[in-house]
Specification:
15 helices; about 400 residues; single chain; six-stranded mixed beta sheet; eight-stranded mixed beta sheet; alpha/beta
Length: about 400
């Protein structure tokens, strides 16, 4: 079975092709073909990179940033040119898409129908930076692969069993009845990290109390017990919770009332400031990229030092609240671009939990080894780095729904 996976970011697009058999391997499988498009650094053009499992590669710039045009171009390299790995589009059996917001009605992966597309559009008001992009990918595939079934794998689904006390905001109950509630995001990553941590530790997932930290440009935590998410930091939108690359995370809502009354802010201004001009970027005035923050700190930049200090303070505080909800902790899990690669962040975070008996192996932490326990031998709590595999998780969901007839 050949499974195509599309994973859209605000200024990027990842596409992967996997080949799966009648049973799934225990570990993540490498794709046959992978393509990445990035237009974050270029004006009016898209940087594309394509590679195959046989070693073929291609890098090029496209004179367009239109997502559907870019996706169409990338897909055609699957069956033509030096990166060809199949002979014709008909060899693709199913296509899976990461869809950020599934609302209350979609609690598992679902075959995409006109009704599902309408729901994705409707839920775009809850996730305006993400759902419209997911839909663009779906429609691009419909044009080039019109007869191939497509599956939506929802980022919110893993958090669908959150207890009501973690779901309902302490405002008027009417909000909850209108769908204004906490949904949680990064669910595909949190679920994979929990499962992979159980494998690494040789434990039954149901027996573990985990705090999974997905920290990259976007950041969220999940408290996982019995294999289920019971609390998380993102809420109604992916803006709530931790300080992020360019997103503020949680702030006093009174600030918004103040800015509205005193400075006449519009909804669009709030959206831009909170999502694109805050976080590490807003405080430092330099960048939302943690690597740039570290570089500026080395040069003595005080605002970069402050941005890092706030970032760590927020992480420690939110991890502490997750531990309290769990009633203890068996493993702290780091994933995402920062979580997987930044030894300084991990060390600074873990330092605050020494009172629990948590201790890092400093040498292991410095190496940032993927898919390993980096806690000291005498640590009472394990600390695990997981290289998150969202695309592989989406491919597995497609395999499940196709072979089991889950959508019939």
């Amino acid at each position: 079975m050949k499974v195509l996976v599309l994973n859209a970011g605000s200024s990027s697009q990842k596409i992967r092709l996997y080949e799966l058999g009648n049973s799934l391997p225990d570990l993540a499988q490498a794709p046959l073909w992978e393509a990445d498009a990035d237009w974050s650094e270029q004006q009016g053009e898209t940087q594309c990179k394509i590679s195959t499992s046989t070693g073929q590669s291609l890098a090029e710039k496209l004179p367009s940033t239109a997502r559907q045009e870019v996706i169409t171009h990338l897909l055609k390299t699957l069956w033509s040119g030096k990166t060809r790995v199949i002979n014709q589009p008909a060899e693709i059996d199913i296509v899976g898409h990461r869809v950020v917001h599934g609302g209350q009605e979609y609690r598992e992966s679902t075959r995409i129908t006109p009704e599902v597309k309408e729901a994705i559009i409707r839920l775009s008001s809850f996730a305006p930076l993400h759902n419209p992009l997911n839909l663009e990918g779906i429609e691009a595939v419909e044009r080039i692969l019109p007869h191939v079934p497509q599956v939506a794998v929802f980022d919110t689904a893993f958090h669908s069993q959150l207890p009501l006390e973690a779901v309902v905001y302490p405002g008027p109950y009417d909000w909850f009845e209108q769908g204004i509630r906490r949904y949680g995001f990064h669910g595909i990553s949190h679920q994979y990290c929990a499962q992979r941590t159980a494998q690494i530790l040789g434990r039954d997932l149901a027996s573990l109390r985990l705090v999974t930290c997905h920290i990259g440009n976007g950041c969220s935590l999940a408290a996982i017990q019995g294999g289920h998410s019971i609390d998380t930091t993102m809420g109604f939108t992916p803006l709530e919770g931790l300080m992020m690359g360019s997103r503020s995370g949680s702030i006093d809502p009174g600030i918004l009332v103040y800015l509205l009354r005193q400075q006449g802010y519009s909804a669009d201004q709030f959206d831009t400031v909170l999502n694109k001009e805050s976080g590490l970027k807003g405080v430092s005035g330099i960048s939302g990229d943690m690597r740039a923050i570290h570089s500026a700190i080395e040069q003595g930049n005080e605002r970069a030092k402050l941005a890092f200090a706030i970032y760590i303070h927020r992480l420690r505080s939110c991890i502490g609240s997750m531990i309290a909800v769990l009633g203890g902790l068996d493993a702290l899990v780091f994933a995402g671009g920062v979580g997987e690669n930044d030894a300084n962040v991990r060390a600074a975070v873990c330092e605050s939990f020494a009172f629990l008996g948590l201790r890092l192996d400093e040498e292991k932490n410095a190496r940032s080894p993927a898919d390993q326990d980096i806690a000291a031998a005498d640590s009472t709590t394990r600390v695990v780095i997981v290289q998150t595999q969202e695309d592989w998780s989406i491919a597995k969901e497609c395999w499940r729904v196709l072979l089991t007839g889950a959508w019939l």
